[in-house]
Design goal:
It is built from eight helices and 13 strands. By secondary structure, the protein is of the alpha/beta class. It has two domains: 66 residues, no CATH class; 182 residues, Rossmann fold (3-Layer(aba) Sandwich), CATH 3.40.50.
Length: 254
């Protein structure tokens, strides 16, 4: 199972996967019925979550709503640390995730806009280097696991800063590796070499421990929140949360 999932993720185009994943996941939702783990996003329980990743992580993917560890953590963060589910907000969600779209669209307090340059799930076709919205348009911006793919991550972040309202905030997650400084080499264009150097065939950089400091160069204010450390260990286990995941909260800067 792990090797099959790893192969599919590496070589099947992501837009196609986004369309078909909910269909064949229904089978796994049935065969994994149980009470050992629970997804806080869809509130369904299973004997275990499915493996996921190029190097497949066990107990990662919810077969019902397709949430991963980071999505479940973000959902809890929004519930416990923000007024996202209650306050009227205009939200820009870049590269929206399956597990969030319908649930966020159903919230009556949100004006919710999904956008991406290629995702079939997004309603607005948009390049993050040139966001087609006026200054100070949004209360909230979400952009998760995108900045490692784009040509210029700092230009994208400066665009987020531009379109955020003065009181605006957002969440900008990316893979962050245990290296001191972000690794970037624009001369590397071969997919196989990008996978070797950056960890994935369509990544153009490998973020290091300087991730927050780097993003601050765009003008955004970045907070490094260790929210998962505040949660009871039994809930971390029940929800299969990522123990080393920092939540990167951005706020509009100068």
């Amino acid at each position: 199972m792990k090797s099959i999932i790893s192969f599919i993720i590496r070589f099947v185009p992501r837009p196609f996967l986004q369309r078909i994943s909910p269909l064949f996941m229904r089978f796994f939702a049935l065969v994994n019925q149980g009470k050992n783990v629970q997804c806080p996003v869809c509130e369904k329980s299973f004997s275990k979550f499915l493996p996921y990743g190029r190097i497949a992580r066990p107990n990662a993917l919810c077969p019902n709503c397709l949430s991963l560890e980071r999505h479940r953590l973000m959902w809890l963060f929004l519930q416990q640390k923000t007024e996202f589910f209650h306050t009227p907000l205009k939200v820009l969600h870049v590269a929206p995730e399956h597990c969030f779209i319908d649930r966020f669209e159903a919230l009556p307090n949100l004006e919710y806009i999904t956008a991406d340059i290629e995702s079939p799930l997004a309603k607005v076709k948009m390049d993050v280097h040139d966001i087609p919205f006026p200054d100070n348009s949004f209360d909230v911006v979400f952009c998760n696991h995108v900045l490692e793919h784009v040509d210029d991550d700092l230009r994208a972040c400066s665009e987020f800063n531009r379109v955020l309202k003065p009181s605006g905030w957002g969440i900008l997650q990316s893979p962050v590796y245990n290296i001191e400084k972000t690794l970037e080499d624009k001369s590397i264009t071969d997919p196989s070499e990008r996978e070797r150097v950056f960890g994935q065939r369509d990544h153009v950089r490998k973020f290091g421990k300087d991730y927050a400091e780097r993003l601050r160069r765009s003008g955004l204010r970045i907070e490094e929140n260790q929210f998962v450390k505040e949660l009871p260990k039994d809930l971390v286990k029940k929800y299969a949360l990522p123990m080393e995941e920092t939540v990167y909260v951005c706020r509009k800067g100068n």
